[in-house]
């Protein structure tokens, strides 16, 4: 019998609709009582509620708490871990865990788009699929995984693409790494080895700004202070900025604030292609670091972890630009 620890953090998967149809938190998590549905497959789910929070309440500090609990679960002899989570920030927590946990212990993150008492609720189904995935020997060395809607995605590349659809989690460009049928996971791809970073605290004041047409330096000027520790910019297209932002961005560079550049596009990779004013080539020459393959929210998580591990200079640039971590 394999034992899978289910760490519950809250979110829609733990909520219910009230009499007025509004989705609210429960005093007791209804998903945290499921433990015997996979016994016929030799899998026992052990439940533990670490938080009961909507996912907008999740913070990097709480993500670190989850990571530390998973490390302890491994020491306790569990065969794998499932983390249930609200979907709004699920991809950020999953990627945080991916960067801070070794790949040889299965960790699967899941959630729900419909609360526990809605018609067609997907929470219990996703939990069972996630537990079956965590119990699979094939899940080892795949990195942290996200199991939702009969698909298995890597934490590194999956993102939420729809506000309410149960098929919201997608992996642009690359697609899912596997599928699940009748609680049986099957993998079709391998994940390139990632770099694991050991941290015991969190650096704060790391920000994310999205570029837009007609943008000037106002938002960047607001971060021109001694408290700002890092910045991720979602640039236009392949990684470009309006020229009116450049003087303000340069002032941040002059402060030695690490600035990471990704694309605001759903698919593709940020690259230094264009040589016009504000183009990626100029931005790289100014000192911005291209982060390949990640969206803005995940690049921010990666930068937080890098700074929390005291990475700086060329080491920080290499870590942030590495497309396989």
From TrEMBL:
Keywords carried by this UniProt record: Hydrolase
Catalytic residue list: 87
Domain Asparaginase/glutaminase C-terminal: residue ranges: 205-320
InterPro entries xref list: AsnASE_II, Asp/glu_Ase-like_sf, Asparaginase/glutaminase-like, Asparaginase/glutaminase_AS2, Asparaginase_C, L-asparaginase_C, L-asparaginase_N, L-asparaginase_N_sf
Pfam assignment, any one: Asparaginase_C
L-asparaginase N-terminal domain mapped to chain residues: 4-191
SUPFAM superfamilies (alphabetical): Glutaminase/Asparaginase
PROSITE patterns registered for this protein in UniProt: ASN_GLN_ASE_2, ASN_GLN_ASE_3
Family as reported in the entry's similarity comment: Belongs to the asparaginase 1 family.
Protein name per the record: Asparaginase
Organism, as annotated: Apilactobacillus apinorum
């Amino acid at each position: 019998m394999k034992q899978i620890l289910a760490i519950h953090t809250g979110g829609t998967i733990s909520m219910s609709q009230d009499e007025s149809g509004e989705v609210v938190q429960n005093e007791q998590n209804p998903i945290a009582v499921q433990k015997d549905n996979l016994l016929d497959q030799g899998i026992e789910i052990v439940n533990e509620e670490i938080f009961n929070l909507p996912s907008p309440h999740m913070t990097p500090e709480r993500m670190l708490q989850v990571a530390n609990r998973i490390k302890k679960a491994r020491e306790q002899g569990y065969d794998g871990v499932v983390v249930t989570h609200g979907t709004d920030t699920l991809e950020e927590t999953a990627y945080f865990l991916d960067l801070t946990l070794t790949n040889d212990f299965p960790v699967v993150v899941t959630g729900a788009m419909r609360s526990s008492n809605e018609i067609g609720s997907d929470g219990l189904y996703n939990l069972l699929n996630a537990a079956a995935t965590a119990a699979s020997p094939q899940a080892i060395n795949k990195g942290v995984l996200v199991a939702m809607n009969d698909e298995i995605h890597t934490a590194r590349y999956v993102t939420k693409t729809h506000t309410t659809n149960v098929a919201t989690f997608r992996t642009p460009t690359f697609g899912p790494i596997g599928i699940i049928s009748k609680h049986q996971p099957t993998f079709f791809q391998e994940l390139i080895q990632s770099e694991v970073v050991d941290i015991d605290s969190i650096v704060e004041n790391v920000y994310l700004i999205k570029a837009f047409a007609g943008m000037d330096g106002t938002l960047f000027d607001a971060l021109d202070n001694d408290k700002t520790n890092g910045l991720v910019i979602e640039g236009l297209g392949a990684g470009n900025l309006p020229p009116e932002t450049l003087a303000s961005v340069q002032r941040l560079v002059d402060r030695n604030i690490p600035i990471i550049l990704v694309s605001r596009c759903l698919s593709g990779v940020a690259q230094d292609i264009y040589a016009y004013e504000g183009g990626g080539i100029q931005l790289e020459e100014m000192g911005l670091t291209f982060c390949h393959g990640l969206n803005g929210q995940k690049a921010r998580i990666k930068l937080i972890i890098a700074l929390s591990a005291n990475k700086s200079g060329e080491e920080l640039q290499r870590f942030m630009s590495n497309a396989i971590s």
